[in-house]
Design a protein that fits this description.
Elements: H1 2-31, H2 36-47, H3 50-61, H4 64-82, H5 84-107
Helix pairs in contact: 1-2
Length: about 120
């Protein structure tokens, strides 16, 4: 899949961009007379939460929904493989249960109280 090739490169580029912004801010603060350690901490405070910035940026790229879908499908596959007996049994019940319910509705046996005639 091409997304596995694109995603790490884009994440690396994003990380470099964030680090560049932090370095520029810290350098400006050092030039203004702050110590290097204080300048770095202040730059991080001004920049904000790096994790949230990354998340928002990824959402703006538009790959987030596709990435989430792929992650969910992979997780579902792992869980189904881990619990193969449960998956087989529940899958069969869901299929036959849907058919029984559908046939019951066709015959008018929905289990709900009859509505009074007007």
């Amino acid at each position: 899949m091409i997304w596995r090739l694109i995603k790490p490169r884009r994440d690396d580029d994003l990380e470099e961009e964030i680090q560049a912004h932090l370095a520029i801010e810290a350098d400006q603060r050092v030039a203004d007379g702050e110590s290097a350690a204080d300048a770095e901490l202040a730059a991080r405070r001004v920049f904000g939460n790096v994790g949230i910035v990354k998340e928002v940026t990824r959402e703006m790229w538009g790959w987030n929904s596709l990435d989430t879908l792929i992650q969910d499908l992979l997780y579902a596959g792992r869980m189904m493989r881990k619990n193969i007996v449960f998956t087989r049994d529940r899958g069969g019940d869901a299929r036959t249960g849907d058919r029984r319910e559908y046939r019951g509705l066709q015959r008018g046996e929905c289990g709900a109280a009859e509505s009074p005639a007007l």
